[in-house]
Structures are given as C-alpha cells and as structure tokens.
Amino acid sequence: MDDLYYKVPKYYMLKKEIVKKIENDEYFDDQMIPSERELIIFYGVSRITVRKAIDELVNEGYLYRIQGKGTYVKGDTKKQDLFSITSCTADIAKLGMTPSRKVLNVSKIDANSKRSRQLEIDRSEKIVMIDRVYFANQEPINRTVAYLPSKYFPGLEDHDFEKNSLYDVLEKEYNVKITRATRTIEAVLAQDEVAELLDVEEGLPIILFRGITYGIVSGKEVPVETFKCSYRSDKYKFYINQVK
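Above: the chain sequence. Below: its structure as tokens.
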C-alpha cells in the first residue's frame, strides 16, 4: 500500500487491497483469504482494522464467513434465479450441490385473518403449517415456513418432508399443477432463532422472501401456499433474468 494509506482510514485501504486481489483473480471464488493474523502481520495494521475491513466486505457481498473455518471469496457460481418457480430442493440441486431438509414442525392450525385472506379461504378453515430448514452440502441455506389450505390437501401433515419435496407431493399425490407465484423481497438482519438455525452471526444481512404460490385445483387456479423464507446471503447470490 502506498502513501495514500496514511491519508485515508486504514480499514478502507485494506478493503481496496482485498477487492483488488479479488478483481485481479489473485483470490479466486470460494478461496479462503489470509487469516486475521496473517493480514495484521502483512499490512502492519491492528485487529480492529482488519475486522472492520472484513465486516464491510462481507456486508457488501465480496466475502462470506464459515464459522470455525475462515473467510472466503464470494463468487458468482452459486446463484439463483429470483423469479424461478421451483422448490428449494430443486434450486439447490441445480447449483450442483446435495440438498437435504430438516423438518422443525408440521401441524394443522387455525387460519388467522391474514393467511385466510392470502389463501382465499374462510377464517374458520384449517391450514397446514410446514416449518423446514434446507441444507446445501449439509450447510444450512434457508429456513422456510409454508402455510397451505388443509381442504385441498387432506392428510398433507402426515407426509415425510425430510424425504419428500413439498411441490413434488402436491403435484404427484394431489394432482396440483403449480402455475405462478407472487413474491416480495427485503433485506433484514439475522436475529435469534433464524440466526441460530442458519448458523450465521446475529446481525448478518439475510434475504427475506414472502409470497403466495398458485396452482390448479379441480380445474381452477387458486392460492395453494403462502410462505416466508429466510435465505442466507453470505454465500449465495440471486439474479433476475430479464427478456424484452
């Protein structure tokens, strides 16, 4: 680092050095960068300076952390189409990774006002709640909570969703064809249970999806699912495929 090192904050210059190495392919996608100790010695800066630089590069999408292992370069190879209507299992498989699921809870519950409105059912009707964590190569990638009208899917709560994809069950067991989905997306900070389930530090930015999925039931398109999905952003990117 040259004389500019002394004219701007040290952490900022360290950030620029790391970004430069990434852009010049000195650090490759998914390669672990030098440890805090190595950066401290090489650049002659404090631990606070190194941590601030790394924290900002993680937040800006250049790097990601794996707890207990180190900090890695975040590449473009693991990305997902923001508007594809596929199951989380299929999305992970398309990335060339091995998908798996852990079911936290499956139960039949009362529909509250909001969910009955979203699913276009009566307030008195039951819905099936399915709470899962999805893994890619045994690493947690998202936590998804889905709510489905029980009247369309009798016995849905009895299926093993650690072995079976929800959308596969809907299509194969209930002859429901998924047609479209509406989604909202926002950046939030991982907190409490979500941070623990996704194995990330509290305060790390994550992507929160909320949406309604539609399908053909008895020849009519109706809402078949409303969901909330908290997605790790430290290792994966999303893209929008636009056409004219």
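The first strand starts at residue 63 and ends at 66.
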